[in-house]
Amino acid sequence: MREELFGKIIDLPVRYLDTHSHGDVMSRMTNDIENISTTVSQSLPSLFSGVLTIIGTISIMLWYCWQLTLLSLATVLLTLLATKILSGRVRRFSRRRQSLLGQLNGTVEEMVSGYRTVVAYNHQKITTADFCDTADSLTKAGIKTDVFSGIMGPIMNCIGNIGFVIIAAFGGYFSVNGLISVGVISAFIVYAKQFSRPINEIAQVYGQLQTAIAGAERVFAVLSEENEDHAGAELVKEENAAVAFKNVSFSYDSKKYVIKDFSLTIPTGKKVALVGATGSGKTTVVNLLMRFYDIDSGAITINGQDIREVSRESLRQNVAIVLQDTVLFSDTVRNNLKYGNEAAAYEKLEAAAEMSCCKDMIRHLPQEYDTVLTGAGANISQGQRQLLAIARAFVADPKILILDEAASNVDTRTEKAIQNAMHRLMQGRTSIVIAHRLSTVRDSDLIVVMDHGEIAESGTHESLLVQKGKYYDLYMTQYAGFAT
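Now predict its structure.
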């Protein structure tokens, strides 16, 4: 089940992971699965042995006196009623406990990943208070679950004692009337005790199963989500890669459009820059091209082929992306660089490292390319992680290159070197660059200024400055000393 859940998470659409707490998803993978595993492994033996004992005991009791057996079974109805009432509460509080446990893990995951921010803003007390509130709610839900689960045994014993009274009373009546002997009554009391024991165990097991069911509901909720659609044709293999957006519109919540009637043609081998204020839709355009999200209307084509008819796997094999938030994995530098191209030779890694200005940095690492990046790159600086991410894109050798604020964490000198390297890399490749630093996009073949999901203006650096529009305002704000 854990393997199936992990495979499911890998195949989930980006939208799902963008809208769900990562800590809660991890909790379903660990705590909920472990809860199911423990409950099932402990409960199944008791369940099977209990069922066999009940069948054997009832058979003997029916053979001795079926009338007294039926009267004895009246207590089973009480047992079933009590089990239904108590197990319903156990399941409800178990469901809440597992949900709060996922929320608690989400809080811990956010605190650990954002630890520097928490400390920098002296937010330790508030963060601890929030954690304690969730933990207290989790404790209360756990106590209620354990209370209702724990009282099942005593209640079942009480019902079992009622069964002894019924056997003694009606057994005496049957004995007086000569229907059975006193020895049969004695035997029935023994069998009733033997019958009630597995009934009580099964009732308790049922209560434990409710806890497992609460966890299983959370697991199956993920498993029932639709996978990312991998169907589609192969992207036609051509040396060129012309990208076109045709009247594209898109919204994340079906209420407010983030991209509205967006049309843009990117000729093969050209470098197009997307600039604009924060929230203008630049990164969303890239997300749509990568099919992290599907458009609501319009079309996006590569060499005239609609990407909705192309499998995501085939599409992404031809595109390399460097995101603003650098993501490296806890593995060697070599494997991180080869992430998009497993067959890359050492010479290609060397060339990519040199082009991305991180060759010297790698040489100074303890084991060079075999150095393990601990904590997903925590043992190197943010700027160095950015350089490795750019080198990884170079190794992938894509037809289409996307750089989303790729030089946001490097110094001006390194930024200039990266620009020169990217200029060499972009020869013959279609490139989309998103940047707030206008110095990185001045040499672009086309600069597109976005505003609220629409193209406000477009042109070369010089022509846009002449127009004195939004791009002119952005440029002058950065380089003419205007207040920012």
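The radius of gyration is 34 Å.
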